[in-house]
Amino acid sequence: MASLVIDASAILPWCFDDEAIAYTEGLLNRCAAGEEVMVASVWPLEITNGLLSVQRRGRVTAERVEQFLVQILRLRIYVEPFTTQQAVRDVKQLAQTHQLTAYDAAYLELALRYNLPLATLDIELKQASFAIGVRLIE
Question: What pTM did the predictor assign?
């Protein structure tokens, strides 16, 4: 069973040496040690989009993107699907109430639904988590 919910903002820095901080490296170490984490169903698209964006800007090579994808696909990352009801009701409500994107609200809804702590670098998502009592990985 997953021990936490993690969003794309806390995972993408794993691809870049210059973005590595103790927080993200600690999360990577936990995942590399076999800990299972949960992500929202939008996560694969967010990760892929983020990687393609930095590749297009010349920040990373296509080879580095492929290496990174191979690395993260080896980790115990469980992608939790959303029902249409959850997406259009619960996620929408959280997004509206806390001025979040639907993507960020999806991670918040997941943490709420499973009573799991949330790992994120996103300031607005942290603030919303605090406001509704979702524990954060610090």
Answer: 0.93
Using the structure block, give the residue that is written with the tokens 């993107």.
65
Could you read off the pLDDT of 14-71 as tens digits, one per residue? Answer: 998 888 899 999 999 999 999 999 999 999 999 999 999 999 999 999 999 999 999 9
Tell me: pLDDT of 88 over 90.
Answer: no
Question: Which tokens sit at 13?
Answer: 């820095």
For the beta carbon of residue 75, count every other beta carbon within 10 angstroms.
18
DSSP state of 92: H
**Helices (runs of H) and strands (runs of E) counted in the chain:** 8, 4
Q: Going from the N-terminus, what domains does the chain have, and what CATH number goes with each?
A: 5-132 (3.40.50.1010)
The dihedral of CA 15, 21, 26, 27: what is its sign? Answer: negative
CB–CB of 110/5 below 8 Å? yes
